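ugh finaly. both done.
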Amino acid sequence: MPRVRCGIAVRGALGEGILTAGFHRVAGTLHCDGVPLDALAAQVGTPSYVYSAPCIREQYTLLAQAFAGTPHRLHYSVKANSNLAILALLQQMGAGVDIVSGGELFRALRAGYTGSGIVFSGVGKTEVEIEEALAADVLLINIESEEELRLVNDVAGRMQRRARIALRVNPEVTVDTPHPYTRTGEKGMKFGIPHDEAVRVASVALGLKNLALAGLDMHVGSQISLFGPYEMGLQRLLALLEQMRAAGATEIRYVDIGGGLAVTYDTERPIDVAQLGSKVSAMLSGSGLQLIVEPGRFIVGNAGVLLTRVLYRKRSGGKEYVITDAGMNDLLRPSHYNAYHRIEPVKAVEGRIVADVVGPVCESGDFFALNREIGDVSAGDILAVHSAGAYGFVMASQYNSRPKAAEVMVDGERYGVVTDREGYDDLVKGERVEPRWTSL
């Protein structure tokens, strides 16, 4: 079967399911690009995350082309997948990054980014993180409250710096997302400066000598498939910009529309990024502003799968269970967001069953799929959990003292381990049987 384009879902041959991203079947065996996933699992073990480098490149290029009509910067949202190899790959493509912690700043610098390619977001930056951002000379620190504004000014003064900032404004746009936790731009959310306070906070910023107000920022939510929320939010930002310029904010040159571009997990409607790019370009035409877009999931979501081995088949209470060696500690999204991930056997099998696909973690919420029709698999078979490139490994934990999985990158017919599988020693790293006692 021919390779399919990243992010596009097509129906495969009978029994082969829906194929997406860099994943396709050859003689009944699922491949990532040119690498058979059963052979890969035999080499690196399970559970393992596997990423397609060509898919990541293609998604980045697709966005770059979509926004070619306006001066723009693509800043990959590190929180979607912070693996150093992925960060380095995108840095080579010309991407910047959007970060939300000092740890992500550390990763970005380690992967080869410089301060001019980094935007520091996040609603709760610590004083130490602000110091680290200023020391790295990041492009922008996105401000989310007046208190944070004043703290950044104080830290910058102490460091004898002039901090470039953007105001993250809550656009107060109601959007329909797959889960309430992915809505960030509605009124009353913890994110951003309330819309009706933005001009006042901008005036405060203009009166603080250690700040340069250089941008406006928003984020309407995640898995947004329509242009409307971006259009409404951008219109509100541009209206605020006029008021801020009238108040003396003459240094604003960046407008950041965030990320949240929808990808396909099942039957969702993917966003038409060409249309989005065209309409945003038209709205910014002649403004003199540089656009910042912060894609995360869109770049990596469909570029990855989680490989897991079937441990047991079980029947209980009239239900079929498929028990795997990966659990909610490896991939939290199904339990946390009730998220759908397509699951299929790496090697084609005869027959179909309806089963719960669950992990070994000692929690009733440890599942990947409930009442799902899948191939009639047996113990030892390898399953691929699709669309696991975003918010997969980055949300993993060692719950139940389970070592974290390996991460693997595939590029054509070659592969490389980019995160070693943890061992038991990693579980107790930094811990002590006997406390190091002291007194205050």
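ok and the 2nd:
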Amino acid sequence: MRVIAGKYRRRKLASLDGSATRPMPDRMREALFNILQGRIAGRAVADLFAGTGAVGIEALSRGAGRAVFVESNPAAAGVIRKNLASVGAEADAEVLAAPVERVLPAIAADIYFVTPPYSAVRAYADTLAALAEKEHDTVAAQHARSLELAEAYGAMRKFRAIDFGSNRLSLYRRAG
């Protein structure tokens, strides 16, 4: 797995062996950042259920000012720290090794990436409902294509959904 574009372009990222994490496919990550183009520079991002940190690191590579990575698996949090060090982005990032629901109230970001394990269906609804109460620009959720996320969570509305094989990327913004 590599960073696709930006100042860390082509830098290789480490991952965990096995199926403990499910990195966002490169094609999906590229499409996501094409949609967010012009919205990333200088902004704060939060990579929730971060896994390897690939999405947040891609955001930093493309000019995000700060990234918070939230990952409850200690081994995966260690991989995120290793990946940040390998690209030289430690100063622009914070890694929180904790469950998302415990730390989300204290996080403020412009863009949130939500990528829980596909089997954690309740985590999608709970996290998106919590994000609907926060100020932000965009929320991007990666999920199984078979999982239908709501069109709205509170004041947050889905504005786009893109399918990639068995994966789907759903994007939300606050109404108004």
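summary for the 2nd one i guess: The chain has a mean pLDDT of 93.
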